[in-house]
Amino acid sequence: MTWRPTQPSTLCEAFQSIAVIDPHAVAVRNVGGSQTLTWGEYAHKVRLVAAGLDSLGVARGDTVALMMSNRIEFYPVDVGVQHLGATSFSVYNTLAAEQLEYVLSNAGNKVVVCEPQYVGVIRASRVPIDHLIVLDEPVDGAITLDDLMARGSANTTFDFEATWQAVQPDDVVTLIYTSGTTGNPKGVEMTHSNIAFECATVTSVLPAEFGDRITSFLPSAHIADRFSALYLQMWAGIQITVVPDPRQIAAAVRDCRPTIWGAVPRVWEKLKAATENIVATEPDEQRRQDMQWAFAVASRKARADLAGEPVSDELAAEYAKADAAVLSSVRAKLGFDQLKWAISGAAPIPAETLAFFGGLGVPITEIWGMSELSCICSVVPPAEHRLGTIGKIVPGMEARIADDGELLVRGPLVMKGYRKEPAKTAEAFDPDGWLATGDVVTMDGDGYLTIIDRKKELIITEGGKNISPANVENVIKAATPLAGVVVSIGDARPYMTALVTLDAEGAAAYAARRGLPDASAKALAEDPEVVAAICAGVSAGNAKLSRVEQIKRFRILPTFWEPGGGELTLTMKLRRKPILQKYAAEIAELYSATPGPGVLEPTS
């Protein structure tokens, strides 16, 4: 952990103490390292951005919106805004003009910093903006980022030191707009104090220090990227490799060789599939056999870990040989050979995926949190992680379980409130200040939490049985590699059914291996071998579920679902209500006495 004599009370204070440790060290870089920003350059540009915005009239308490991809310029802009005591927040680049109008109006900002490609949708939102600042190239009626910094250089009356030192812990540092699975998103107000405590408490569990490395690939509008690839950087001095295209994640990891890293479950699942493909496509027969043996040993160890059983001395010795001969080189090929810790969050992850990476020598600890809690609220070190749990509540926070099983928390991580939503803010808390998380959990005697499901998403069947759809979906997905998304259905129904979509990348690889001419979702959804593989996977998953949880019928949809679309949020959470509405006809057929073509029943 980066040492400092006292803990900073604001992110500005944290940044200023970190930036002087080694001004020549690289703070931010692109994949490949052709573009870099040193800590000295970073600090200088923060000063220029702050002074430039001051010349435009931006002051403490104002808000500035950012709309750009994951790129180097994001950092001095966002941190420069912070040093004014203003609120810097990002909007999702996929927002339509109508959605953008709501977010920008709710935030109350009159300055937007963006890439030129987003100028049209920003202007179409009709939100009155005093200043539009663009990157890369001039746009009529806008100021370029270079112009802004030139203004900052010429602003000789601006007292940078006094301004950032006047920033208070209770000042709102950012707004995090919730995914909006139903209705308009709510703007979660996070303060410097919230985020400073988050950085301090998380690094007390998962140490981070100056020079650690991580990638930034999630949208900066999401709290996960803001915390791990911005605020934690400012707090500990982490080097960031920016990844503008999520399809570059695997290549970026190999290039960055992260020491700390995190991803949502679907990314870990894709990396698992890619790892298994390394073994399947190894051209050298002897090498392939060696890899198959090593992964079989790793799988035995993983199964023991998954069952909570001790690893025998014989297995430990064989695993050590497998690691030295094969697994260590596979980790290096993936880019995880220098990894100190890794996390998974935002949604439940199959225990099999955690066990797979544990067997490979990449221990992942599952974390839990929410935007209203500054990101992470429960975590343990990987060595203490228990498969299937989300760890323990972080030091300094309180937790209790309500009579209906809902997790309630309070403490320094809890948001200031929802932007301009006093009624909704009040609804989120009980009279004693406990925040209702919406998650139903259990807690064991050691304080480890296990998520059952979202309170509002629990299924109650026609027979009155309570079922967790997320649990069913995770079990089926773990047994069905070709499946991209599984949506379990059964609320007020006589039995459980599911909608299944194929994973786009996995489907393409499958088609290539089998020489199929058409890798479209429609063609593959009708391919007999694909259908048989999905049926087998659903059957295998059913074998691990209770009778009332088992999927009786399912439909493979002839489409790929993309993050940010009508069915998935940008962090790949299911938009359940829109899915039920959009696919009402397909769902009706799943419960028909004489279902039409395309409705499948798992093989016994």
TrEMBL record:
Keyword tags: Fatty acid metabolism, Ligase, Lipid metabolism
Domain AMP-dependent synthetase/ligase: 22-418
UniProt xrefs under Gene3D superfamilies: N-terminal domain of ligase-like
Statement: the UniProt record of this protein carries the keyword Ligase: yes
Database matches in CDD domains: VL_LC_FACS_like
Keyword Lipid metabolism: yes
InterPro entries with a match to the protein in the record: AMP-binding_CS, AMP-dep_synth/lig_dom, ANL_N_sf
Pfam name, any one: AMP-binding
GO molecular function, one term: ligase activity
Superkingdom, natural source: Bacteria
Family, as annotated: Belongs to the ATP-dependent AMP-binding enzyme family.
Alphabetized NCBIfam families for the sequence: ligase_FadD11
Protein name: Acyl-CoA synthetase
